[in-house]
Amino acid sequence: MTFHIVSLPGDGIGPEIMAGTLEVLASLSQKFHFDYEVSEHLMGGRAIDETGSPLPETTLAACQQADAVLLAAIGGPQWQYPTNRPEHGLLQLRKSLELFANIRPTRVSEHTVNLSPLKAEIVAATDLVIVRELTSGIYFGTPSHWDENGAVDTLNYAKNEIERIVHEAFKLAQQRRKKLTSVDKENVLSSSKLWRQTVDRIATQYPDVTVEHLLVDACSMHLLKRPTDFDVIVTENLFGDILSDEASMLPGSLGLSPSASFSESGPALYEPIHGSAPDIAGQNKANPFGMLLSLAMCLRMSVHRDDMATWLENAVDHLIAHKITTPDLGGQSTTNEIFEVLQSHIKEA
Ligand code: NAD
């Protein structure tokens, strides 16, 4: 059966890293006999310019009918409208597809250990996954409004929203090193008190998993001090956003980290964790590895082709090991050169 992928290249460096990634997918699919089709749709700032909406109805409908969605990045300084921003389209897409579970792995390999801003002896062999709740919390709470005299945001969590993400995190921990760190602000926030109580209650169903609770401020410090101690971290939407950007720097660049977002039954969405990097857009400098590794996650988790995913992950490791990287990782290659090298590897292998 043909696997249907929706591609959302978005803004800034998005189209640059998406185009080469889809060409890599085309070559890989020939090599591994994978039957798929891709349709490209507008989203983000370009969609506002062309249709007035950051998430046109045709784009949302295509995503709802897809087997998986690949998103590059959206946003940019030219779209700073208070009520109609590219980011609103992304929030609406996550909410509409009910993508409540955002999985963000961070791994420091022997090839990236010296690119880390931290000392090698602290980060070497870091291998952790942040499981971030993605469709609730302060990003979606109402009321939410501001004017020049004041502003309101609402942090709201229902018990079942906490339960479903916590179950996902426990199941993931069971497949890994069986350690779960739950992050909250239980000493201050009511939603965190419910969060912690829920984690403790669900923990009795996963007796093989060791649970640790950390306050978010302490966790942000421990991530820099003892990153190798972490296995799976589960947390709410805002804390997860901040901690996963912090964790993404452990292997040296925001441009390296992929992510996957899941609903209970619909299509999953795969995207690098970085934004549209307007400061380097159009300069052929964007690191495409986060996008390529997001494709690898899609191949493993939605297409169930471990062979293709592993090939792609090993190819990225190989390029980093041979210093074929963009300047953010200390290399001198352009985005296009990296895609060209990958294409020649696929043809040689
Ligand atoms: P950003 O992630 O775009 O960039 C932060 C820094 O990291 C910049 O210096 C950038 O050059 C660098 N960088 C990011 N990705 C890179 C890559 N692949 N290769 C090399 N360097 C890379 O964050 P920002 O500057 O805060 O945001 C820019 C825009 O992106 C904003 O409009 C923001 O809202 C949006 N954004 C979108 C997403 C998304 O699409 N999921 C995520 C975060 C931010």
Descriptive terms for the model:
Isopropylmalate Dehydrogenase; 19% strand; alpha/beta; 349 residues; 12 helices; single chain; binds nicotinamide-adenine-dinucleotide
Task: Write a structural description.
The protein is of the alpha/beta class. It folds into two domains: 1-99 and 263-349, Isopropylmalate Dehydrogenase; 101-257, Isopropylmalate Dehydrogenase (3-Layer(aba) Sandwich), CATH 3.40.718.10. It is built from twelve helices and twelve strands. The protein has helices at residues 14-32, 45-51, 57-65, 86-96, 120-123, 159-175, 190-203, 216-225, 237-248, 289-301, 306-321, 335-348; strands at 3-10, 36-40, 68-73, 101-107, 127-133, 145-147, 150-152, 179-184, 210-215, 232-235, 258-262, 268-272. The strands form two sheets. The chain has a ten-stranded mixed sheet with strand order 2-1-3-12-11-4-5-10-8-9, sandwiched between helices. It starts with a strand and ends with a helix. The model has no long low-confidence stretch (mean pLDDT 96). The structure holds nicotinamide-adenine-dinucleotide. Residues 13, 73-76, 87, 90, 254-255, 271, 274-280, 286-287, 290, 326, 328 line the site of nicotinamide-adenine-dinucleotide. Nicotinamide-adenine-dinucleotide (NAD) binds next to helix 4.
